[in-house]
Structures are given as structure tokens and as C-alpha cells.
Amino acid sequence: MNKRIKKKRELENSLRMAGCAIQFLLEQQNQAIKDLQAKEGASEESKQQLADLQAQFDQYKLDSDIWSFNSINFSLD
User: Fold this and answer.
1) pLDDT given for residue 74 in this prediction
2) Distances (CA, A) of 2 to 6, 8, 10, 16, 43
3) How far apart are CA 18 and CA 44, in angstroms?
């Protein structure tokens, strides 16, 4: 009976250690996912900044084209 109890405790300890190891791995994976999501968010922020800069450039180009057109028209008058 004593051997049986000892085996049972060893098995419980092994299962507890395995559970702790699995919990640790799950926490690591969860953190890795959060890190990737944070990078993705930064990437989205960078994409938005790039889109804003592109819009500003397009507006500048349009204003420049209008100014050039008006300058040519003015010089032809």
C-alpha cells in the first residue's frame, strides 16, 4: 500500500510539473502573440502616417500644378 501511495504522489507531482510547464509555454505563446499584435499595430500606424504623407504630397502636387497653370495663363494674358 505504501508503494502505491508513493507512486500516486509521484504521478501527481509529474502531472503538476507538466501542467506548470504547459502553463509556462502557453504564457510565452500568449506574450508572443501580444508582441506581434503590438508590432502589427505599429505597422498600421506607420501605414497611416505614410498614407497621410502621400495625401499631403498629392495635395502639394495638385497645388503646384494649379499654380503652374495659373502662372502660364497669367503670362499669356
Assistant:
1) 66
2) 6, 10, 12, 21, 61
3) 39
pLDDT, one tens digit per residue, over 39-73 is 766 677 777 887 888 888 888 888 888 877 777 66
Cell of 2: 505504501
List Cβ neighbours of 47 (8 Å cut-off, separation of 6 or more).
none
Chain position carrying cell 504522489: 9
Cell, residue 46: 506607420
Single pTM value for the model? 0.49
CA 30 to chain centroid, in Å, comes to 14
Output the nine-digit C-alpha cell for 77: 494674358
Distance CA 58, CA 66 (A): 12
